[in-house]
Design brief:
The complex is a heterodimer of chains A (141) and B (288).
Chain A: E1 5-14, H1 24-31, H2 35-46, E2 53-61, E3 66-70, H3 75-83, E4 98-101, H4 102-116, H5 121-134, E5 137-140
Helix pairs in contact in A: 3-4, 4-5
Chain B: E1 4-12, H1 18-27, E2 33-36, E3 41-47, H2 53-62, E4 75-82, H3 85-88, E5 96-98, E6 102-105, E7 118-121, H4 134-146, E8 152-156, H5 162-169, E9 174-179, H6 182-194, E10 201-205, E11 216-222, H7 225-231, E12 239-251, H8 255-263, E13 268-275, E14 278-284
Parallel strand pairs in B: 6-7, 8-9, 8-11, 9-10, 11-12
Antiparallel strand pairs in B: 1-3, 1-4, 2-3, 5-6, 12-14, 13-14
Helix pairs in contact in B: 4-5, 7-8
Classes of the chains: A alpha+beta (141), B alpha/beta (288).
């Protein structure tokens, strides 16, 4: 089909629980995207990942039709899953709330590589490790 | 949600730490964030009544360099008011007329149809084809011009079903609408029902027309140049004598090649239209 792209909107949204409130409303409203249609379809597509925050890329075409692609959950969600914890530490330097192995770190970095804009897996691992430490999650061998 | 006031919180940060910053903002109460380029930044929102959370976000973000993460710039906060998120987007899509008789109207429009006008009820969504793109607009105008009551129609790549519905509304005896995308088929089916033409329009999931054992008086095909060229050889057996082929989705520089491929199969050009860079053309099979 002769689709001309007008804009691409990138959002991070709660899986299965998006609403028309900001950021969805202002971002999609300005681009002329059918907000309720998006919210319904996004929630339907991501209901089985509830609890995670998911990056989503919405491509808006010139005739205001749109498509969207859901990406891997936020790194912090993958870290929480791997460490088996509900939330990060409120004082990450002093209070450690969990740990992940270097192997788990590598797996998360591999899953997130396409979205991270990192040059290589080592760079991606450094970013994920930093994120883990900022949540009070230690990296162990 | 009427007239609620929100704080927009903007954080300039390199894409490598978007996930980390997003997590901080979401854990502090933002219901999601938007990621923007030029400059790379994240925008999150909090209800104005929760402004005390902004300081917590700022404090957490200030700590990121302690964990070998790149620093992020200071947080900028603005107050915004919006009347109704649900309907803001509708300003971009209005009732529009195509040719002499066709009108595409969204569900929220209260406009009354004029005499002789056929209304297609359609809201933009996940399938292509709302009339907002020149290729669809050209097809609607040419259908208005050339479709005659009683014709048997094939709509190849139906998307929303807009062209199939237009043909049925203008008196086609039967319309077969096909698409290779299951979601489009579902949406087209809903639109066909909504427009009250389900008795004459059938929507099917197919990725080609090769195994159709019937002929049509009018085939509308709003796809791309390469499709017209590749499928030209299989087209003549599908067209009834004197039948029309509407070739759309063709940009100006590919138009000659599409014409050559269709003329090589014995079709003759009936009408050519161009809008911006897009062309649509109507070819006819000889009547004998």
């Amino acid at each position: 089909m002769a689709k001309e792209i007008m804009t691409v909107i990138k959002l991070n949204l709660p899986a299965g629980a998006a609403t028309p409130a900001p950021p969805v409303g202002p971002a999609l409203g300005q681009a002329g995207v059918n907000i309720m249609e998006f919210v319904k379809k996004f929630n339907e597509a991501t209901a089985n990942q509830r609890g995670s925050t998911l990056p989503v890329e919405i491509t808006v075409y010139k005739d205001r039709s749109f498509t969207f692609v859901v990406k891997q959950p936020l790194a912090s969600d993958l870290i929480k899953q791997a460490a088996g914890i509900e939330s990060g530490s409120d004082n990450p330097l002093r209070k450690k709330v969990g740990r992940i192995t270097r192997e788990q770190l590598r797996q998360i970095a591999e899953r997130k590589m396409p979205d991270l804009n990192a040059n290589d897996i080592e760079a991606a691992m450094r970013i994920i490790a930093g994120t883990a430490r900022s949540m009070g999650v230690e990296i162990v061998d | 949600m009427q007239d609620e006031r929100w704080l927009s919180i903007e954080v300039i940060a390199p894409p490598q730490v978007w996930d980390t910053v997003a997590a901080v903002m979401i854990e502090s109460g933002c219901t999601g964030v938007q990621l923007c380029d030029k400059p790379p930044r994240l925008v999150g929102y909090l209800p104005e009544t929760e402004s005390e959370r902004v300081a917590a976000i700022q404090e957490k973000l200030n700590r990121l360099p302690q964990f070998d993460l790149p620093p992020v710039a200071a947080v900028q906060v603005q107050t915004i008011t919006e009347k109704d998120w649900h309907t803001l987007w509708r300003r971009h899509f209005r009732s529009r007329k195509f040719g002499q008789r066709l009108r595409v109207q969204p569900s929220w429009s209260k406009r009354k149809p004029e005499p002789n006008e056929q209304t297609i009820l359609l809201d933009p969504g996940l399938a292509f084809g709302t009339g907002g793109h020149p290729t669809t607009a050209l097809c609607l105008e040419m259908i208005d011009q050339w479709l005659q009551p009683g014709m048997r129609v094939l709509d190849m790549g139906t998307g929303t079903g807009i062209l199939a519905i237009a043909c049925a509304k203008l008196g086609a005896a039967r319309v077969l609408a096909i698409d290779n995308d299951p979601l489009s088929v579902q949406i087209a089916q809903e639109n066909v029902m909504r427009n009250g033409v389900s008795e004459r329009v059938t929507v099917q999931l197919r990725d080609n027309w090769n195994d159709l054992n019937e002929t049509f008086d009018f085939i509308a095909c709003n796809i791309i140049s390469t499709f017209h060229i590749a499928n030209a050889p299989t087209l003549p057996p599908l067209l009834a004598p004197g039948g029309y082929y509407l070739a759309s989705g063709v940009i100006g520089r590919n138009w000659r090649e599409v014409r050559k491929a269709l003329e090589a199969e014995g079709l003759t050009l009936g009408e050519f239209r161009k809008r911006r860079t897009w062309t649509a053309s109507l070819f006819q099979k000889s009547a004998s």
